[in-house]
Design brief:
With 251 residues, this protein is of the alpha/beta class. It folds into two domains: 147 residues, D-Maltodextrin-Binding Protein, domain 2 (3-Layer(aba) Sandwich); 87 residues, D-Maltodextrin-Binding Protein, domain 2 (3-Layer(aba) Sandwich), CATH 3.40.190.10. 40% of the residues lie in helices and 24% in strands. The chain has ten helices and eleven strands. Helix 4 links the parallel strand 6 and strand 7. Helix 4 crosses helix 6 and helix 4 crosses helix 10. The longest helix is centred in the last third of the chain and has 18 residues. The protein is globular and about 55 Å long.
């Protein structure tokens, strides 16, 4: 019996170009049990062994006994990513409390790394479990990610794009999520899977047609904000982020 791989992917707009080809590849889907959910839940499945591979927040790596980064695609950014931002009504130096997005560990970890090592600030962090955007008021800021962040850009007067800040801090791009597995995956399957990942990136007009979105220009998002190729420079940025994260967690 041929192996069926349990794979998870996040449900945001930024994954649509990658999932476009995967969902249309009969050969890939024949070997795939696909789950689509928000990032931290997909990550927990990988940690618990309920999934073999997932397009998961890279901070998940620090919680895996074994990990492998598969393929040549990721959810990354060379500069401003637009959909991972700290939002507030006041400038950063006046922020006292930060509400943390429950949907992604990497974004929370990145914010804490930047707060500690770059901005040199120590706000009070508050974990959330539901939509908290209405509480972004006064000196209480909020980290918002994904599609909701694109909406929040129309509301909050102060927007700090974490990928852009990371670039200013390190001169390197940032990787938010990659296809990470908790065990070796058959190279033949990864080759097919990787080819399928690239299909939507070569057919963005079709991806855009399937995902009408009035809040933000998705052509700009897919071509200027998100950077999908897992380049050597992105791997360097990823390694540096994990180094900072481990140092922060060790304090």
């Amino acid at each position: 019996m041929e192996k069926i791989w349990k794979v998870g992917a996040v449900s945001y707009l930024n994954t649509k170009p990658l999932l476009y080809g995967i969902l249309r590849s009969a050969e890939v889907m024949r070997h795939l049990e696909l789950t689509i959910d928000y990032p931290s839940r997909i990550a927990q499945d990988l940690i618990d062994g309920d999934a073999d591979m997932g397009l998961v927040p890279v901070a998940t790596i620090t919680r895996l006994k074994e990990y492998h980064i598969n393929g040549q695609y990721c959810i990354g950014a060379e500069g401003d990513v637009a959909s991972v931002c700290l939002f507030s009504e006041v400038p950063l130096e006046q922020v006292q409390t930060v509400l943390l997005d429950y949907q992604s560990r990497t974004s929370v970890a990145l914010l804490k790394v930047l707060m500690h090592f770059y901005w040199k600030r120590t706000p009070v962090y508050v974990n959330t479990h539901e939509d908290y955007r209405a509480s972004i008021k006064g000196t209480t800021a909020g980290l918002v990610i994904g599609d909701r962040a694109l909406e929040q850009r129309l509301i909050s007067p102060y927007v700090y794009d974490l990928a852009g800040v990371w670039r200013a801090f390190t001169t390197l791009p940032f990787v938010f999520a990659a296809w990470i597995s908790n065990k070796p995956i058959d190279p033949a399957f990864i080759s097919l899977f990787d080819q399928a990942n690239g299909v939507g990136l070569k057919a963005l007009d079709k991806v855009l047609a399937e995902n009408p979105y009035a809040v933000y220009d998705l052509h700009t998002y897919y071509t200027q904000n998100i950077s999908y190729e897992l380049t050597p420079e992105k791997r360097q940025g990823l390694d540096l982020f994990l180094q900072y994260l481990r140092e922060l967690q060790g304090k």
